TrEMBL record:
Any Pfam family hit: SNF
Membrane topology: Multi-pass membrane protein
Annotated protein name in UniProt: Transporter
The family this protein is said to belong to: Belongs to the sodium:neurotransmitter symporter (SNF) (TC 2.A.22) family.
Organism: Janthinobacterium aestuarii
Record's keyword terms, sorted: Membrane, Symport, Transmembrane, Transmembrane helix, Transport
Length: 459
C-alpha cells in the first residue's frame, strides 16, 4: 500500500502495512518486550496477583489505551513521521512539532540501553547452546552473567550485533521488513510460550507458581501498588515515544483502530501471563525465590532449566523466545529516527538506517561499558545505563504521553478526532470518540503526571 509522505517540502513514495494481521502483529510486536518476561509477571505476583491485574486493567483503560489510540489515530491521519505529523495537524504557529522531537530523543535513549540488554539475550542463546551456563548453582550462573557484562569487548560486540540485525530488517522497508518479520515472529512467540508453559505446568510445584501469580491478595493493594499498576499501564503499551504514531502512519485506512488496540492490549497481557506460567512454576518447584529483572532471566532461569529433563534444549527455546520479544520492540523504536531522517532530510531508507545505527552504536556504547570501563563514571549518582533508563522512563515518555493526550483532546479539535477515528463512518467509533476525548482531556494526562511525579520521587 503506497502512501504520499510530506516532509520539509519533499514528496516521497511511502509504504504501509498491507494486511490486517500485519497491522496487529507489528503493533503487538512494538508493545511486547523483555518487560513481559522479566517484570510484569513478577510485579503481578508480588503485588496481589489477580487484584493487581484488575487494577492494571482499569488503569490501562484510563491511561494507556486512550493515549495509544490517540497516537495511532494522529499517525494514520497524517501518514508521515511524528515530527511532520504534529506540524501538519497542529494549529499554525504552535510548536507541537516538539512532541515528535521528544519522541525521537526518547527512542534514542531507550535503544541506547535496551540494545545492550538485548545483546545479553542473544549472547545467552549462544551460551545456552554450548551449555556453559547449564548449572543448578546460582553462584555459577551469577559468575557467568558478571563475566559477560563486565567484559567491554563482548558488551560492545553483542550490542553492535543487535543494532546490525535490527538495522538489516529496517533496510528491507515497512512491508518486506517490519511487517513480514512481525507476521512470523508473533505466532512463533506464542508457540514457544505454550511449549514452555506445558513443561512448567507438569512440574511438581506448579500450583505454588500459579498461586503466586494469580491468587488475589487485596491486602497488598496499597496506594504505591496502584501507582505501580498505573505506571505499567502507561509504559507497557509503548506509547509516548513516537512508535505508535509512526506505526499508525502505516495503518490501512480501513483498519478499526480501537478494535486493533484492544486486541493488542489483550494479546500483550496474554504474553505476560503465559510468561509467568512458563517461569514461576519451575522457579517454585526447584526452591528459588521469585525475582524480577536481569537476575531472573540471566541467573535464575539457567539454574532452573538445568534441573529439568531436556533442560538445555528448553533453555535455548527460552532465550530464543526472549530474543523474539525484544526484536519487535527494537524494530519499532529504531523505526522512529529512521523514518524521521528518511522523510525530513529526503535520505534513502538505507542511508537513514545506517546513520541511525552509527549514532546508536556511539550513544549505546556508554551504556554497554557501564559495568566495565565506565563503571565509575556517574551523573546524579547513576551510571550511564541507569541514567538513560531513568531520564527516558521518568521524563521523556510521560511528557510525550501528556502532550499527545492534551494535543488530541484540546488542540487538534473534537471533530478532527471523531472523523479520524471513525473513518468518517463506523458509528460505534464515533460514539466511543466522545468517551476517549473526555479521558484524554481530563483523566489520562492527570494520571500520567502522577506517575511521572512518583518516578521523579516527588512523593
Amino acid at each position: 500500500m503506497k502512501q504520499q509522505a510530506q516532509g520539509s517540502g519533499l514528496t516521497l513514495k511511502r509504504a504501509g502495512f498491507t494486511t490486517g494481521f500485519g497491522v496487529l502483529a507489528a503493533t503487538l510486536g512494538s508493545a511486547v518486550g523483555l518487560g513481559n518476561i522479566w517484570k510484569f509477571p513478577y510485579l503481578t505476583g508480588a503485588n496481589g496477583g489477580a487484584g493487581f491485574l484488575l487494577i492494571y486493567l482499569l488503569a490501562t483503560l484510563l491511561v494507556g489505551l486512550p493515549v495509544m489510540i490517540a497516537e495511532i489515530t494522529l499517525g494514520r491521519r497524517a501518514k508521515v513521521n511524528p515530527i511532520s505529523t504534529m506540524e501538519q495537524l497542529a494549529p499554525k504557529g504552535k510548536p507541537w512539532w516538539l512532541v515528535g522531537v521528544i519522541g525521537m530523543i526518547a527512542a534514542f535513549l531507550i535503544v541506547a540501553f535496551y540494545s545492550e540488554v538485548v545483546g545479553w539475550v542473544f549472547a545467552y542463546i549462544a551460551k545456552a547452546i554450548d551449555g556453559s551456563i547449564l548449572s543448578s548453582d546460582k553462584l555459577v550462573t551469577e559468575a557467568a552473567f558478571a563475566s559477560l557484562i563486565s567484559n567491554p569487548l563482548q558488551s560492545l560486540l553483542w550490542q553492535w550485533g543487535v543494532l546490525l540485525f535490527i538495522g538489516g530488517i529496517l533496510m528491507l522497508g515497512v512491508t518486506k521488513g517490519i511487517e513480514a518479520i512481525a507476521k512470523k515472529l508473533m505466532p512463533l512467540l506464542f508457540l514457544l510460550l505454550l511449549l514452555l508453559c506445558a513443561v512448567s505446568l507438569s512440574l511438581d510445584k506448579a500450583g505454588e507458581g500459579l498461586a503466586f501469580l494469580f491468587r488475589p491478595d487485596f491486602s497488598k493493594l496499597t496506594a504505591s501498588v496502584v501507582l505501580t499498576a498505573m505506571g505499567l499501564a502507561f509504559f507497557k503499551l509503548s506509547v509516548g515515544m513516537g512508535t505508535m504514531m509512526t506505526y499508525g502512519s502505516y495503518f490501512r485506512d480501513d483498519q478499526n483502530i480501537p478494535v486493533t488496540t484492544l486486541r493488542v492490549m489483550a494479546a500483550d497481557l496474554g504474553v505476560s501471563m503465559l510468561a509467568g506460567i512458563a517461569i514461576f512454576p519451575a522457579v517454585f518447584t526447584f526452591g528459588f525465590a521469585p525475582s524480577a529483572g536481569p537476575s531472573l532471566v540471566f541467573i535464575t532461569i539457567p539454574a532452573v532449566f538445568s534441573q529439568i529433563p531436556m533442560g538445555q534444549v528448553l533453555m535455548v527455546v527460552f532465550f530464543i523466545l526472549a530474543a523474539v520479544a525484544a526484536t519487535g520492540a527494537m524494530l519499532s523504536l529504531m523505526e522512529v529516527p529512521v523514518v524521521i531522517f528518511h522523510e525530513r532530510f529526503g535520505w534513502t531508507r538505507t542511508k537513514a538506517t545506517v546513520v541511525t545505527m552509527l549514532l546508536l552504536a556511539v550513544l549505546g556504547s556508554v551504556c554497554a561499558l557501564s559495568n566495565s570501563t565506565l563503571a565509575d563514571f556517574k551523573l546524579f549518582d547513576l551510571n550511564m545505563f541507569d541514567l538513560f533508563d531513568f531520564v527516558s522512563s521518568n521524563i521523556f515518555l510521560p511528557v510525550g504521553g501528556i502532550a499527545i493526550a492534551l494535543f488530541t483532546g484540546w488542540a487538534w479539535g473534537k471533530q478532527h478526532f471523531i472523523d479520524a477515528i471513525s473513518n468518517h463512518g463506523q458509528l460505534q467509533n464515533r460514539q466511543l470518540a466522545h468517551v476517549l476525548l473526555f479521558l484524554l482531556r481530563f483523566i489520562s494526562p492527570v494520571l500520567i503526571l502522577i506517575v511521572m511525579l512518583k518516578g521523579l520521587k516527588v512523593f
